[in-house]
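Exercise 7. Given the encoded structure of a 191-residue chain, write a plausible sequence.
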């Protein structure tokens, strides 16, 4: 074997070892450390035979200005930290006058001062943002439903980002996003 072939094989072998090291050792350590600061949340809401499951990672405020700075206004947000948040419903829902079919969706938002766009996207994404530019991975062509959520100021400070579903009157539920002193509320009902 000539010297050039040996060098090429050594380079390929080194790259393969480094890739395996990252995939099996460094990657899991990095993921575990990010989860310490933004722990996973799995929320289930049930009402009769309706079940809604939410998955998101919950970052902390940590004395930061959240909306308008950390989370810019007018830009798509992964709605939490780490992986893209997900919303699963076993029944069709009526949201903002439109039908959201039963299924699993990645959940995205576009926050603004007055209202938020809440986006149910039928593509699942391994992570919430692209690594090269930190922009949301959401692809608009996979949006199933986009709805407006009203924004209000909370009387209490929410240190950690929260998503929840609460029951309201007349068989209505409200999907609530709360962080810092901002609360966005999106009414939903069985279709």
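Solution.
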């Amino acid at each position: 074997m000539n010297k050039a072939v040996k060098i090429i094989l050594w380079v390929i072998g080194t790259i393969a070892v480094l890739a395996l090291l990252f995939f099996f050792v460094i990657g899991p350590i990095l993921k575990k450390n990010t989860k310490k600061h933004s722990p996973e949340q799995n929320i289930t809401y049930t009402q009769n035979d309706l079940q809604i499951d939410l998955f998101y990672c919950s970052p902390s405020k940590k004395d930061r200005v959240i909306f308008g700075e950390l989370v810019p206004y007018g830009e798509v947000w992964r709605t939490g930290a780490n992986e893209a948040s997900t919303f699963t419903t076993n029944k069709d829902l009526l949201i903002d006058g439109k039908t959201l079919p039963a299924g699993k969706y990645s959940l995205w938002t576009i926050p603004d001062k007055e209202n938020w766009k809440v986006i149910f996207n039928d593509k699942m994404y391994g992570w919430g943002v692209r690594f090269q530019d930190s922009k949301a991975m959401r692809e608009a062509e996979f949006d199933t439903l986009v709805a407006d959520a009203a924004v209000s100021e909370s009387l209490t400070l929410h240190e950690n980002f929260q998503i929840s579903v609460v029951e309201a009157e007349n068989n209505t539920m409200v999907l609530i996003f709360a962080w810092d002193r901002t609360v966005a509320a999106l009414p939903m009902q069985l279709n």
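Remark. Residues 162 and 178 are 5 Å apart (CA to CA). Students should compare their own answers with the one above.
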